[in-house]
Amino acid sequence: MANIKSAKKRARQNLKRRARNRYYKTTARTYIKKARALIAAGEFEQAEEVVRLAEKALDKAAQKGIIHKNNAARRKSRLQIYLNRAKSQAA
Fold first, then answer.
1. Assign residue 67 a region: left if phi > 0, alpha if psi is -120 to 50, beta otherwise?
2. pLDDT in tens, 18-68
3. CA-CA distance, 41 to 38, in Å (whole number)?
4. What mean pLDDT is predicted for residues 61-78?
5. CB-based contact 44:83 (threshold 8 Å)
6. Domain ranges, ordered by start, for the chain
7. Chain-centre distance of CA 2, in angstroms?
8. What is the pLDDT of residue 2?
9. Which of 14, 30, 33, 71 is in Cβ range 3.0-4.6 Å of 67 for a Cys bridge?
10. DSSP 24-48
């Protein structure tokens, strides 16, 4: 445990930031998981809406520096490709 006042403050800040960062990360992961489940089930109308929310969550995480912007772009791209392939196979 920290003894110096500034180190104690830094530890408190890190806890707050970790909680905030985890919120944005888990929100994005949850939307991605929901979107993949809907796509696999063949419910494309709902899936498109959830994909849009997932992209929004990924952009927000990237904007706040929680994940790298290229990481967000890659995840969005893969999710969109998965949706488009499933739609074309169903048609």
1. beta
2. 999 999 999 999 999 999 999 999 999 999 999 999 999 999 999 999 999
3. 5
4. 97
5. yes
6. 5-90
7. 33
8. 87
9. 71
10. HHHHHHHHHHHHHHHHHHT-HHHHH
What tokens appear for 75 in the block?
A: 């995840």
Q: Average pLDDT of 85-89?
A: 95
The one-letter code for the residue type at 5 is K
For tokens 């905030």, the residue is 20
Q: What is the CATH number of domain 5-90?
A: 1.20.58.110
Cβ burial of 39 (10 Å; 0-12, 13-18, 19+) is buried
- 0.85 exceeded by pTM: yes
Tally of residues, the chain: 91
The pLDDT assigned to 24 comes to: 97
